[in-house]
C-alpha cells in the first residue's frame, strides 16, 4: 500500500515539474527573428484592439498582418491598413509568427465548389394561370392608381399601454429662493420654512442604500483609495439618475474632493487615476461637503446595525 502511494506521488510530482518546465521555457524562449514581409498574428490578450475579443467565442488572435519595418530586435511596425484604430508599432512579445512553411491543410480549408441545383422544370418559362376576379372586387393589373383615387385610410397611432397617461414635462420646485437653496444643500437638522403661506418641515432622510462587500484587492487599499473607489462605483450604479444633475456629495472623508479637483503635477496611483478618469467628466456638477463621522450616521445606518440574535 505504501509503495503504491509513493508511486502515485512520484507521478504527480513529475507531471507538475513538466508543467513548470514548459512554462519556464515558454517565458524564456528566444526572440523570433523577424524580417520585412513576415506574417504575424496579434495576441489580443497582450495587445487589446477595440471591437475585438468582446465575447468568449471570439478569436484570441487578429491577423495575419505583414511586417513592413523592423525597428529593433524587440519592436516591429505592421501594415494594419488605412482603417486601423490602433498604432502600428508592436512588441515582439505581443505577436505570434506565422509559420513560413506551406500550410499542409490549405486545400482542405478552401471552400468546396457546390454542385449546381437541378432545375425543377424545363428552361422554358411556364405561363402562369390567369387571375380569376372575385365578386365585387376589381382585378389588379399592375398599373398605378389614378390621382383622384381614394387613398387607404391610415391606421390610428396608439401609445403603448405602459405609456398611456404619461405626460412629458419639467419638474419645477415651487416656493421662494430660500426653499430652493435649502433643497440643494445638505440638511444638517430639521428646518421649518414658509412655502406659499404653508409651514413646511425639511428633514434629511435616505431614499436608497447601496452597498457591497469589498474584494480581496480592495481590502488592501488605504482609506483614500477605498473611499474614492466607493464613490466611483456608486456613481456608476446611479448614473441614470445622477448624470447631468447637480449632485452634492456629503462625506466624512475630507480629502475626497481635493483628490478629484487637484491640478498638481504629483502623479497618483493607478487606483486613484482610474477613479479620477471616471468622475472628472462630471466634476462640473459635483459639490463636496464634509460632515464629521459622528454626525454622518444615516449613511452608515445599515452597516452599524447590531447583528440579529441567533
UniProtKB/TrEMBL annotation:
The keyword Translocase does not apply. It comes from the Eukaryota. The keyword Nucleotidyltransferase applies. GO terms for molecular function: endonuclease activity; hydrolase activity; RNA-directed DNA polymerase activity. Pfam families: RT_RNaseH (PF17917). Keywords: Endonuclease, Hydrolase, Nuclease, Nucleotidyltransferase, RNA-directed DNA polymerase, Transferase. Residues 203-264 form the Reverse transcriptase RNase H-like domain. SUPFAM superfamilies: DNA/RNA polymerases (SSF56672). PANTHER family: INTEGRASE CATALYTIC DOMAIN-CONTAINING PROTEIN, PROTEIN CBG26694. This is Reverse transcriptase RNase H-like domain-containing protein. It comes from Tilletia indica.
Amino acid at each position: 500500500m505504501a509503495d503504491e502511494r509513493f508511486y502515485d506521488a512520484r507521478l504527480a510530482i513529475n507531471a507538475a515539474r513538466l508543467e513548470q518546465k514548459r512554462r519556464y521555457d515558454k517565458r524564456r524562449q528566444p526572440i523570433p527573428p523577424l524580417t520585412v514581409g513576415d506574417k504575424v498574428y496579434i495576441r489580443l490578450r497582450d495587445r487589446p484592439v477595440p471591437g475585438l475579443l468582446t465575447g468568449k467565442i471570439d478569436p484570441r488572435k487578429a491577423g495575419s498582418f505583414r511586417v513592413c519595418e523592423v525597428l529593433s530586435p524587440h519592436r516591429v511596425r505592421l501594415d494594419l491598413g488605412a482603417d486601423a484604430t490602433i498604432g502600428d508599432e508592436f512588441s515582439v512579445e505581443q505577436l505570434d509568427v506565422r509559420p513560413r512553411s506551406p500550410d499542409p491543410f490549405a486545400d482542405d480549408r478552401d471552400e468546396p465548389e457546390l454542385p449546381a441545383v437541378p432545375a425543377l422544370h424545363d428552361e422554358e418559362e411556364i405561363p402562369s394561370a390567369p387571375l380569376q376576379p372575385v365578386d365585387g372586387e376589381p382585378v389588379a393589373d399592375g398599373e398605378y392608381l389614378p390621382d383622384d383615387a381614394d387613398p387607404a385610410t391610415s391606421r390610428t397611432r396608439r401609445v403603448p399601454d405602459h405609456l398611456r397617461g404619461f405626460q412629458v414635462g419639467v419638474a419645477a420646485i415651487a416656493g421662494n429662493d430660500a426653499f430652493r437653496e435649502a433643497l440643494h444643500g445638505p440638511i444638517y437638522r430639521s428646518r421649518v420654512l414658509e412655502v406659499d403661506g404653508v409651514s413646511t418641515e425639511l428633514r434629511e432622510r435616505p431614499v436608497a442604500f447601496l452597498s457591497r462587500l469589498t474584494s480581496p484587492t480592495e481590502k488592501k487599499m488605504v482609506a483614500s483609495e477605498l473611499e474614492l473607489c466607493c464613490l466611483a462605483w456608486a456613481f456608476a450604479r446611479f448614473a441614470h439618475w445622477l448624470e447631468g444633475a447637480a449632485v452634492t456629495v456629503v462625506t466624512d472623508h475630507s480629502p475626497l474632493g481635493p483628490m478629484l479637483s487637484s491640478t498638481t503635477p504629483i502623479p497618483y496611483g493607478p487606483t486613484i487615476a482610474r477613479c479620477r478618469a471616471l468622475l472628472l467628466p462630471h466634476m462640473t456638477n459635483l459639490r463636496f461637503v464634509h460632515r464629521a463621522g459622528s454626525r454622518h450616521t444615516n449613511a452608515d445606518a445599515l452597516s452599524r446595525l447590531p447583528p440579529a440574535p441567533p
